[in-house]
Amino acid sequence: MKIQQIREEKIKLLAPAENMYKAAVFYNPKMAFSRNISVAALQVFKKIAGRKIVVLDALSASGVRGLRYANEISGIKKVFLNDKNPVAYKLIKKNIALNRLKKKCVPQKGDANILMHQNVFDAIDLDPFGSPNIFLDSAARSIYHKGFLAVTATDTAPLCGSYPETCFKKYGIRSLKTDYYSELGIRVLISHIILALSRRERAFIPQLSFAKEHYFRVFGKIEHAGKITDLLKQFGHIMQCFNCGNRKYGNIELRCFCGNKFEFVGPIFLGKISDRKFCAEVAKECKKKRFIEEGMLAKQLASESELPPFYYDLHYLAKVEKIKLPKIEDFIARLRKSGFKAGRTHFCPTAVKTDAGYEEIIKMLK
Ligand SMILES: [Zn+2]
Question: Domain 3-236+267-304 is of which CATH architecture?
Answer without folding.
Answer: 3-Layer(aba) Sandwich (3.40)
